[in-house]
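Session log. Operator J.P. requested a structure for one protein chain; no other inputs attached. Running the standard single-chain path with token output.
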Amino acid sequence: MANVVSLGHEKVQRVLDRAVVEMHIPGIVAEVKGPDGVWLGTAGLADITTGRRRRTGEYVHIGSAGKAFTAATMLQLEAEGKLDIDDPVEKWLPGLLGDKGYDGDRITIRHLLNNTSGLFITGLAPEISRRYSTRSGFLANRFDTWTTDELLELAVSQPPVHEPGAGFSYSNGGFYLAGAIIERATGNSYAQEVDRTVIRPLGLSHTYVRPADDTGYPNPHPRAYSEVFLREGVDPADVTAENWRSMFESPGLGPLDTTDFNSSWAWAAGNLVSTTSEMVRVLEALASGGLLPPEQHRKMWTTVSTEGGNWMPHARYGLGVFELDEAVTDGLTLRGVGGSLQGSHIAVVGTPDGEHTIAFHTNTEYRTWALIFELVAAEFDLPAIEIP
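Structure written below.
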């Protein structure tokens, strides 16, 4: 463990150590920035073959934390007068939704960004499951490159799950559409606009949208490991939001190294690389209003209920961001971003003034919501947060 300032973070370090010993996470790194300085903590390994340990400053995949970049870019375009987040999708992507059971005149950009569009859970699409959800499928398809047209087709390949605005359903597909709208409204690529509106204004020198053909990471970076696969022979069409946990392979097969793979399927839903330090800076700016104009900042943090959406408990969702329920944070308002994909899981949580933030990363995907809530409780001196 490295300490820039010794702040007495023994409770946080104990959670890191327990994540490795009890949750069997290969390695974890955490960074805390508060009024008194910066604290850095690590536990476990960056490479289970060589024994190299986790360290700070590593490049990591941030998964769905990238949704906040997409939302911030869209909101900045609104501030510049290029679009309105209450524009219907049909205005920008005419005909895309018309024959797929979706109403492009009723689904708005806001619906896409707060996951209330009614688009189905893209991660459960049979084509995604076929390619990546079993060990054999992942090994055969790990270097596949997805085009934007393929992702847009994927986004509407299954029927709606509810009417626009009628509920919350976490959908990468909505962010694919948002990425396409960004490109249509500006004439630039999604990556160029994220760089212009978020990365450069915040001075992020270690954060970038991953190119569609990229399969590696700059050094230093941890190896990525996954043990979350469906049993061989499971028909992806049988997997639902309710039964997916029961479809997993039996434990004990050991981790698969997933470091080198193409994540273009994530695109505007979360295909960025960053560091914990720069993600702290991102959340500080988003939470406090340091990046967006006041009107757009307010819109980003206007949240909706996630109840019934098979997502993180004790949370409400804004535009690519979340707030924790104050009933479990002892009245403290905490804002955050997070994401997970094969071999990577990150979460960043902090106060709205941007003065106190914790970020952590594991080199395996999400295992349990308990980890984020234990770290939040330890860092912000809260009572234990129960997981439903």
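Operator note: The first helix runs from residue 10 to 21.
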